[in-house]
């Protein structure tokens, strides 16, 4: 199954089929109440929606990671999160079958971080903070990438949310190429992305970057990311709206130290 799935991912952007979607159990986390739609049917294998207090996940039992994690990020949540001390309560997701979920042992001594998709720094209270530490909201992430590239991107989104009042944010992995790695039973993504949609401006854009130290940060239209990944992230928007670029902050990344 693993090899068949990877082959499917490699051609995801080439497949144009009707989106696979049902009614979301947590529509408040998505723009216009519509969750992303999987365009490549092979990506839908062993998927399961998980709803949390302020974010929603589409989990893949094949990769044992999310396909995406989505938030309706409000300025007041950003303010509330500032007052919380981080509590590193990483845990396996009990709602998932053991045969499809990540375990703490998968990440142990792997050299990879347990990288949040919906960030701990966006969580407004203890309950939602704990929810963000489920491994169903994590991917294996290069540690330098996490600290020097991803953390600045997450901070930039919070700054935007304060200015805009609210944003819809979708964060996820891409599994591109034929040389993907695994840590334990969890597939390591080749790339990570973060889609940001401003309801006020009715425009969106995405950051897209390789999952490695010192990776270049690309800012691309949502329409382009959809072609690359094989998922329609904002199905309520027109193609023209998805081609229109929301201005994203320039990220000043720190260079990782040479070993």
UniProtKB/TrEMBL annotation:
Span of the signal peptide: 1-23
The UniProt record lists the keyword Transcription regulation: no
Domain ENPP1-3/EXOG-like endonuclease/phosphodiesterase as annotated: residue spans: 52-240
Residue intervals of the DNA/RNA non-specific endonuclease/pyrophosphatase/phosphodiesterase domain: 51-240
Key words, A-Z: Endonuclease, Hydrolase, Magnesium, Metal-binding, Nuclease, Signal
InterPro entries per record: DNA/RNA_endonuclease_AS, DNA/RNA_non-sp_Endonuclease_sf, Endo_G_ENPP1-like_dom, ENPP1-3/EXOG-like_nuc-like, His-Me_finger_sf, Non-specific_endonuclease
Alphabetical list of Gene3D superfamilies matching this protein: Extracellular Endonuclease, subunit A
EC number(s) stated in the UniProt entry for this protein: 3.1.30.-
Needed cofactors: Mg(2+)
Domain of life: Bacteria
Annotated GO MF terms: endonuclease activity
Family, similarity comment: Belongs to the DNA/RNA non-specific endonuclease family.
Name of this protein: Endonuclease
């Amino acid at each position: 199954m693993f090899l068949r799935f990877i082959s499917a991912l490699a051609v995801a952007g080439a497949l144009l089929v009707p989106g696979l979607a049902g009614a979301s159990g947590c529509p408040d986390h998505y723009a216009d109440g519509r969750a992303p739609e999987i365009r490549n049917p092979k990506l839908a294998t062993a998927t399961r929606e998980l709803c949390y207090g302020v974010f929603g996940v589409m989990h893949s039992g094949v990769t044992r990671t999310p396909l995406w994690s989505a938030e309706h990020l409000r300025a007041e949540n950003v303010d509330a999160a500032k007052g919380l001390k981080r509590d590193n309560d990483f845990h396996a997701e009990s709602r998932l079958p053991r045969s499809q979920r990540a375990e703490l042992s998968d990440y142990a001594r792997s050299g990879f971080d347990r990288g949040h998709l919906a960030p701990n720094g966006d969580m407004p209270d203890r309950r939602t903070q704990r929810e963000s530490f489920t491994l169903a909201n994590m991917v294996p992430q290069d540690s330098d990438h996490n600290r020097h590239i991803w953390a600045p991107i997450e901070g930039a989104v919070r700054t935007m949310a304060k200015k805009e009042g609210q944003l819809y944010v979708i964060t996820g992995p891409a599994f591109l190429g034929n040389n993907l790695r695994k840590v334990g039973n969890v597939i390591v993504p080749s790339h990570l992305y973060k889609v940001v949609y401003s309801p006020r401006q009715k425009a969106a854009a995405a950051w897209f970057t390789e999952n490695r130290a010192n990776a270049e940060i690309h800012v691309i239209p949502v329409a382009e990311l959809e072609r690359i990944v094989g998922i329609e992230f904002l199905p309520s928007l027109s193609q023209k709206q998805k081609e229109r670029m929301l201005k994203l902050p320039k990220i000043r990344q720190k260079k990782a130290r040479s070993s």
